């Protein structure tokens, strides 16, 4: 055994470590241990040579990688008795995708999590990786502790089927990182002139898709497997999943988000540990079926599981609509896979496809032949029933002639008095807008929580029909964001609301379905447990078939997009909850973070107590000593709270992350500005 002595004060890492590398290149030498920096022990042997280029020094005591090789050991503060680990940077990770399937990947444990997730997404061909992150697997507190072997058996049952690895490679993992080829230089991934990669009708990969993956392990495997929805095959799988029972349970799940500005090793993630890859930020930028079939499918899967596991509330009619869409997507996924196999030799002219796509881009798509007066802002005026709930009141809705101008609603006792002073007036900027709809009961209500100095004023609007509801609801949603009906998104919002309502209609004379089709439906895999307890399977099946007639003509990719849009329309969508204690408050409450606002919520009911918009935010700070987050808004409004069961860094990163995502634009360079993300989310880095 040979021993190398190094001068700790003078020798830098760059000089010390390569000395070991040079000796390791000799066939008679093998690295055994590197306990102290001042000594490297080598054992003479005739073993096979090994590539050490992926190895680096890890300082376990300080939880840090020694990656700055030009630094001296003294600059790192390393003493003679320091113990360093000479270990590979790339290690195995068991990754659970949004579709609940597991894949084994080799990830760089020395990269920051933000960079590691970006590399994973580029390998999986998922655009906009800034929307995703890694989450630790939540533990079900209602279950007794199981043996580690039992947990692994449950996970193995959900392993992803299909060749996600390079055939003949002799390995069962995907390699993610810069060492094996340039896997994330996929042509067109972040280019404005991309060639369509997926069929916009069914989301199946076009023939030149393999070129997109460069040297990735996916290129020789089956890249389309991640774009295919795999139906739940057994109700037992759904029964074993952890279902949060209350808002506090949902808040505890969010304790597991990893810090994006630190590496996996720094956060004590072990090799072969199971982590969850999830869409963390509910702000989905530029979803395009031509390039995002995998992203859309994984987003659909995450929304599907959120509904089935009751992580988000929905009405009975909405649940049947979601179940019908699931059933439709499952059927078309099987048909699409069969058709893709039959048409695998179909060639696509890449040049023609690119020119066609460029032509559509230059022409700007279809435009209306009749342009409205762009100098005037549209208005709404109609009779609307208004209700202002108060304590100990028995009064119901009262009809008013209401006018909607800019972001304000004015209520008059009659149409004739509309030129005078309104009986009530409310500005909806910054308010909370919640739908309360029951199609079968012809109930079309809009709940408004309007911010005032004391808290929130609750106002209810009741519309007479779907068309009136769609226009007023769309106007309210835009007004809450500070936008008017002159905004280009208003008409699209109206159409989305109408289509969402249409999908929930029950057909009075449903077509008779063949017996073999009804046996294909397994309601236990399509609806949440709450409704399985309420109705018999035959009743649920009949209602799913009725709802399916409203979506039966949709293509596969359209059905997935409609499912995602319907998920986004739910009142609780996009709110991430944390348990917090506000300054001056005596009890624990909830802080909800959405893409455009902070919400103070009642922990037991989930009702909004106060809302603050990011658009009015001046700055936010964190006192790292007492773990307090302070947010300052316009008009000298100051909000301070302490997160009781989660590191305040997680909340800080959510706020900064949403601010970062709000800066994205289609006309800018689509490469990620990592440094800007770290400035907004890291705090102390």
UniProtKB/TrEMBL annotation:
PROSITE patterns: PH_DOMAIN (PS50003). GO terms for molecular function: integrin binding. CDD domains: FERM_B-lobe, FERM_C_fermitin, FERM_F1_KIND2, PH_fermitin. One of its GO terms (cellular component) is focal adhesion. It holds the Pfam family FERM_M. Residues 385-481 form the PH domain. Coiled coil: none annotated. GO terms for biological process: cell-matrix adhesion; integrin-mediated signaling pathway. Keywords: Cell adhesion. Belongs to the kindlin family. This is Fermitin family homolog 2 isoform X2. It comes from Alligator sinensis (Chinese alligator). The gene is FERMT2.
